[in-house]
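Morning!

This is the sequence you dropped in the shared folder:
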Amino acid sequence: EVQLVESGGGLVQPGGSLILSCAASGFTFGSYDMSWVRQAPGKGPEWVSAINSGAGSTYYADPVKGRFTISRDNAENTLYLHMNSLEPEDTAVYYCATGGYSDYRGGSWGQGTQVTVAS
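The structure's back. Tokens below.
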């Protein structure tokens, strides 16, 4: 059974930083492209970033480009999202999902972790 467990969310002031983690189990993590997706209150899911299975390629949505960094540790079956220069508009539940930009919608998702950016 695929399991994805996100952690690391919380309340942070504008301009602050957070690191999200996603622990994966139940599948061959190193063989899958992975994505981070977020959902703000009252809005639909928004793809944030993706990384290919070998970690050689990364992709970002324009609103987070230059501020967020996606990475993975295939030996530890863990996906990361380093978030810097956080803005109130980044407030959302963040999910990790199997698949890249084109197929994350049909993949497996975790339960999400809340990120709130406020002063």
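Headline: The mean pLDDT is 97.

More detail when I'm at my desk.
O.
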